[in-house]
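Protein folding task:
====================
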Amino acid sequence: MTTLDYWVIAIFSIGILVAGLSMSDRKADMKSYFGASGALPWWMSGLSLYMGFFSAGTFVVWGAIAYEQGWVAVAIQWTMAVAGFLIGRFIAPRWRQTGVLTAAEFIQQRFGSSVHKFYTFVFLLMSFAYNGAFLYPVAKLVNVSTGLPSHWAIILFGLMAVLYTTSGGLWAVIVTNVLQFVVLTAAVLIVVPLAFDKVGGIGQFIQDAPLGFFNLTGGEYSLWFMVAFGFYNMVFIGGNWAYVQRYTSVPTKREAKKVGYLFGWLYVFSPVVWMLPPMLYRMINVDLGGLENEGAYLMMCKEVLPAGMMGLMITGMIFATTDSVNASLNVSSAVFTNDVYKRLHPGSSNKSLMWVARLSTLGFGVVTVLIALMVPAMGGIVEVVLSIGALTGVPLYGPAVWALFSKRQTAFSVLFVTISSLLVNLFFKFVSPALFEISLGRMQETVLGVTLPIVLLAVFEVIYRDRPYRVPTATDDNLAGADDASQGRRRGTLAVKTIALSLLGVGLLILLLGLLATHGRAAVLIIALAILALGAALILSLRRSRRANG
């Protein structure tokens, strides 16, 4: 790390903070703060969904697996592409059709207040664990690249991310998500050719790779794990309350479909590019062991990036990862404000509700920081992310997704499925290894976590086959009033303008770094010009839109 890298980190961090804060709106209401007034453009929502899910573990979780087992990490992520296409075809439009602000609101309409209270409590509890797992990679990235102690990195960047999420709500989350997508994609497109050059080219990489490095499965990541993990991703991405927000905040069911399809296509191509740096680092250093392999991604970047670009890559990784936290914090605050506080205080004014929304976002952020500080004691990020997913993903979110299509599930059935599945999974995770010396491997744990709740839901479908229930729906035309639509369009225009100006700034910064680079200059300059062209294109599109609207 050079002095220039540290300056880039500081400048870029301030820029992201300013971009997020620029979306602050003193006149915001619940619909705008948590749902973007139902006017979120599908491409913004799709990129945000991608970054919110992708950034949490790509560099650390999947990077560690790519270093150890190679192409297996790509194959695991291809299951997410399949999940995205299925969500776009079936699940996303169903969520948009319900006309709800949050998934908790749908559960209230569908199953009543008791079930609503249970899932709200469990979701808020689990969101702390997910957010802590999302925030921990920030500390790992900063620690590996700068030497800053992990706990200080968690506190610093965690609170910085909470600040603009508290201020700008969902629009701030979306804007920063889109910026991180462009910046990180650009950075990786610079890293990959330089990394190949470092190891002697593609042919040398293929020749020197360990035996089985290009297999689609390996070790604990078997074919059955892939199938179960893919199904888990479909339920998790289709039912997690933070991601549901991406489907309910776009104008129409058709655009909700596009959100899922965009996510799927991005996961077809991006894993191949994103997993190459840690795989290539295996050719340089074969001695990483234990939790050290979680830093393989950054170590490759440090080997090949010119001065300044390493700082840009690190900051992009940091804020892309914290974007996952921001999205989860926003929906957690939405659930608390809309589905807890508002029901306890039905006469609350919009002003008081917005105070509760911002204060709860801040409070949840502080708890997230505390949880992230405990991740190393839980076995490392790979163990935490995959275990949390296997234990809770389908039991917690599967019943709601099933209920989008089923006319037969009842309050009792969904509660029974969730509680019994969680208890069985927890038993085999914590109790049986200690009492009976029976423990499940990664594949067995994942398959059990996926199949048990699905089987139970299917059983209740048969038991309740004579109990039809009409699923509440709303048409595209009555989901938002004229005022909401007008406000949404104004905020959308501001979001595009903020993204465009930010991209121009980023492009100029990368252009300057390219001119100063001692190696890899051509790759850096090409990417800089591409980002400048994208920013200019967005500015021109805004001007054409204004002329068209008079």
User: Anything to note?
Assistant: The chain has a mean pLDDT of 81. The longest helix spans residues 150-199.
